[in-house]
Amino acid sequence: MLTNSTIKLPNTYSGIKENVLNPEIELQQIWQSLGNKKLTSAFEKSQQLCLTFPDFAPGWFAASIVACEQGRFDAALENVDHALRLSPSIDQWTLHKARIYFLKGQRNAANKLAQVLINSSQKNLSFCSELGLLFNKLGNFQSSLECYQSALEIQPNNPQTLFNLASVQRYMGQLEEAQNSFDQLIKLKPDDSEAWLLRSHLKKQTPEHNHLIGLQEVLKQPKTAISKAQLFYALGKELEDLHKFDEAFEALQQGAQTRRANMQYTLENDLAVLTKISQVYNYKMLSNAIVGCESPAPIFILGLPRTGSTLVERIVANHSDVYAAGELNNFAIAMMHQVRQLSNTPPPDKLALIAATSEINFAQLGQNYIQSTRPDTNNHARFIDKLPLNSLYVGLIRLALPNAKIIYVQRHPLDTFFAIFKQCFTQGYPFSYDLDELCEYQIAHHKLMQHWQQQLGQHLYSLSYENLVTDIEGETRKLLDYCELPWEPNCFEFQQNKTATTTASASQVRQPLYSSSIGKWKKFSQQLSEVKLRFEAAGITCD
């Protein structure tokens, strides 16, 4: 909180300006400075305003916004508290306070405060949308859904609200409702390519019910590269559903080529990283006495994307002792924090970074990771971290968290390849948009996982997606034994799990277990024939 005793005015201020008479004018100048990204000016003006008019509540609120923009969240919280003491009935300011709690990592406090605002009498479209977004970030999807529904009552045909509502409905498994919301949105905004893409994945399209004509028409219109790519992916998905496999692959390839042509990415850098990891985390490194954090809480589910990790997550998360925390970036963030403790000079590149990680305090890394997850995991005894690319950190995880469980989900290599290739990812996985690059990356990733299996032995549990699908109970029993969890029959009734999921598998996990995804690559055997030969040459069995 800013006070008269703590404010330090810049040198340009020799004292209070005598001509500052109207706080509203000064407040407007702060908003203008913020709008122009002039943070220093906004900060100076907000301090001046609060010092000159200490009872002017909007000034303290503006000072809180400025502090947030500067990343000074403690100061932001103190300033908004001061504003609310002066004007306690402004719910928009309380919403801002809840956002600050979220930015500070105090998720429970943010959620508790936000819940109070659901029944606010000051609702407008912007307020409901902002509150819905905060609940979305907090993983409170039911409350987020209610906020977006309230926003639509205020403005029924708002495209952004319809998109957000449909997305939350999809996360929660309300697929028919999501379909209706996307239908309404696309009627209002036919060029919303992401809506077309997400709608195409809600269910399997049929000859009687599909969107091929609409997709082909909208593709004729000028589009940005990302929009064009998304539409091609949607078209490819629907063509595949209709068993038009050659046309489907052509559409997917056009989407991938469009996406790749507008990305800056060098595959060789990633291949060098995978090789360096196995060199640094070798037998000598991993065979030393491990003195990491002893917590048994984490269960890491990892591997390449689209291999069935979401299915495995929902099976294990149906256990009463386990909480599904989702795809967390916490381990990588904690690792980077530890590396920064080694030197004031950051590693010049990724290869130097990998080398530096071998010098960090592993026990501290494990402890910091566990502490960082607690706002998400609500202090559950066991929790799942399902970030696929934690596969790069298996060696570090073993050293930092020797009692953690690590589950490597595998799928037929060509089914994996095709499932990745046909997915238009929101972010990440830049290697997935070119057949050659994806092939090379998957081979390199396979070699890295072989390395981890050789070095970690029984500490790394390998699970076959195909085996799981064909023997759900038997494989679930073995999986729970590895995780040291008592048997619970409802674990293999995963489709009854009502927990929301935000992954690309949000629609599939709502369905009963099915085996139709096994061997799907064979529908595209001609297009994938060269990939198959390259995999086999690299020692990857494709039978």
What's this model, at a glance?
By secondary structure, the chain is mostly helical. It has helices spanning 23-35, 39-52, 57-69, 73-86, 91-103, 107-116, 125-138, 141-154, 159-171, 175-188, 193-200, 212-218, 225-241, 245-261, 267-280, 283-287, 309-317, 330-340, 350-357, 362-377, 394-400, 413-421, 435-456, 465-470, 472-482, 529-537; strands at residues 298-302, 322-324, 382-385, 405-410, 460-464.
What does this structure look like?
This protein has 543 residues and is mainly alpha-helical. 57% of the residues lie in helices and 4% in strands. It has 26 helices and five strands. It has a five-stranded parallel beta sheet, with helices on both faces. α3 packs antiparallel against α4 (73-86) and α5 packs antiparallel against α6. The longest helix is centred in the last third of the chain and has 22 residues, at 435-456. Residues 1-20 have low confidence and may be disordered.
Secondary structure topology:
Blueprint (H helix, E strand, L loop, with lengths): L22 H13 L3 H14 L4 H13 L3 H14 L4 H13 L3 H10 L8 H14 L2 H14 L4 H13 L3 H14 L4 H8 L11 H7 L6 H17 L3 H17 L5 H14 L2 H5 L10 E5 L6 H9 L4 E3 L5 H11 L9 H8 L4 H16 L4 E4 L8 H7 L4 E6 L2 H9 L13 H22 L3 E5 H6 L1 H11 L46 H9 L6
Parallel strand pairs: 1-3, 1-4, 2-3, 4-5
